[in-house]
Amino acid sequence: MSRVRVFTRSLGCPKNLVDTENILGGLGKSYEPAPDIQNCDVVLINTCAFIQPAVEESLEVIFAAHEERRRLEKSPLLVVTGCLPSRYGNSLEMELPEADLLAPISRQKNLPQDILAALNAKPASSACQRRISTPNSYAYLKISEGCNNKCFFCTIPSIRGRLKSRNADDILTEAQWLISSGIKEIIVVAQDSTAWGRDSAETSDAAGLIAELSGLKGLQRLRLMYLYPTGLSHTFLEFMARTGPPLLPYFDVPFQHSHPDILKSMGRPFRQDPMEVVKKIRQVLPGAVLRTTLITGYPGEKEEHFAHLCDFVKNVGFNHLGVFPFHAEEGTRAAEMPEQVPEEQKVRRAEMIMSMQKNISREKLAKYQDKEVEVLVDIPHPEWPGLFMGRTWFQAPEIDGITYVSGPDVEPGAIVRARVQETKDYDLVAMQD
What is the C-alpha separation between 51 and 254, in angstroms, rounded? Predict the structure, then answer.
């Protein structure tokens, strides 16, 4: 077998997506993308298992793929990797006989050769670079693995282990390769991007690494994701202000809650008033855009705690916000805590926050009506010829809104200036003048 056709499903976060791209690169020149299960040799499913809904989604995708391949004359190899096998370990082999190969995150480097061996295919003589699966406008750059924080609700340290920073030279080499491949925007991801280098002998810290990335020739945008509040010191913020483009003043800060009692109960490394962090960011970078994630219904969250959270959301006016009802994850300290909040109350509180956020987002975007914005074009609209989907500097892919754009110079990978014709709850519609 000279070519190995692979149909891929990568679930969960961008960090998982990078892992998937590295696995495909490890197959070397034998790799060929497959459009569906009917026309593939391998079904590769990279799972998420951070919370129970993610576990359920992963299992549904696995079972659906297994049922589909059973109807085929020649059944492809079903490979399951990622957080699900890492979280549940050897017990998953007994519970998931549908999978031909199961590989936790720790074995992903060996997975390409395991796949080729299972197919009786020729071993890859050498691995290729990552097989980028995002549009040619942007790509993710993972700078570390794991996390040293011990938040009581989080399964990540048990799934991905403690913090392990990548070598700076390897990161910079990969970033330069991405730029030479035509990537306009690099998005830095980690479990905590500000923690890079703390675990290693690197002479630089996160600021030093970001400074070197910002200086790479040809890079148009550099976006940082997953910035823990504890890492946003005045020194780090001043560094970001001094650096300027291509480094974007975009802050993805997972506060999770606002009330000090709940933050303490969560075991968060930052337990002071989150509003102080917001004020500090806006003092140093007045034009900064803020995104956060919040949890509603954490054990012990009373009405006064939730009211505090609502006031926090109103007073900050986040540009982007995601909120999740608390899930009592097996193996976490939070799952064993007293005063568990009823499910319907968690969901109701999450819906209330998102209803508030919709109004906040709508008001913020309305200020762009008839103004010119710079749009990085990602992909054509799947249904409307001549219309494309892209993003302004304050929109991260997949999690924030979209800018729909049209015009004579609009094409995937291009950066164009366009005037906003219409503003929506989370999206913009723009056209070149």
Answer: 16
